[in-house]
Design a protein that fits this description.
Elements lengths: L16 E3 L3 E4 L7 E5 L4 H17 L3 H9 L2 H4 L3 H18 L9 H14 L1 H20 L25 H10 L2 H13 L3 H5 L10 E5 L6 E5 L2 H10 L24 H18 L11 H9 L4 H8 L4 H7 L15
Antiparallel strand pairs: 1-2, 2-3, 4-5
Family: Belongs to the 'phage' integrase family.
Protein name: Site-specific recombinase XerC
GO biological process, one term: DNA integration
Length: 338
Amino acid sequence: MVGKRKSPNDNIFPPRVYRGKSKFEYHPAGGGSISLCPLNSPISLVWAKFEAEKAKKEAASNLHALAEEFFESADFTKLSLDTRKDYRKYSNKLMPVFGNMDPDCIKPQHIRKYMDKRGVASQTQANREKAFLSRLYSWAYERGKVKLNPCKGVRQFKEEARDRYITDEEYNALYSVSPLLVKVAMEIAYLCLARQKDVLALKKSELLDAGMFIAQGKTGKKQIKAWSNRLRAVITMAKDLPLKPSMSSIYVLHKADGQKYTRDGFNSRWEVAREVARQKFPHLSFDFTFHDLKAKGVSDLEGTLQEKQQISGHKTITQTARYDRKVQIVPVVGGQGK
């Protein structure tokens, strides 16, 4: 509550603006003081400076400002490039709805309403955006910037585990029409059970005598994938990827300037290859993702689930089981042992 001024003549000044020793000062409700302009300034300038500072103060208390502060934090910069890009993408969806709100005024019911509406278009994206918002609030809560995390207790949509198995016919059809870059990436992902990020980050220095060294970006698991004739052939193929004159590259998969492919850059070429395959092989389905290549590799491996876990580098056997998607052939009654 603003008290009475000592001099009635000062009532022409904005609320919480007072004469200091040499400048007009704005004393916000939360405490402190902000210098505005010299005492001999016209009243119009005093009001202009006050409105500008008040607007800054109000903007600093909304969710958009909190998100921008998170994006500039050390915690954010430690995340992988792909995760940072994803978080900014999720933020761009959330801010038109919540950006101007005080973070402490956002309640679980508001998150639920957003999830329900967003889920009409994509339940998966609604889950991802809610997960980002929860991460933002957790970061802010630990630093005393918010009172609670309104995402707590708000249920995400149930996501069905992928069970898409890429058949040999589908794989070979896509491979036959793909450019060299996509062919090499497909083979490494399939043969080594590797994620796209690890395939694109593979360096020539990681091609060892014993095999191909891969440190999984997601799990941190380090493995050497032993050479096979097919894997050696892929690396030989990769040497034909074009490079500009006088350029070199440290990456197995590289652009003409020697730089590594980004996720988006590679995905655009992957999508073009799938579209070409759809047109040439209309009787086949190419609705699988690049990540499904790893699942095909796990499924095609021979051995027990425990053996597949060791080769795939999964932390738990449950994770391996989710990737083992080939439909099993089982005997019928009376057919056992035949």
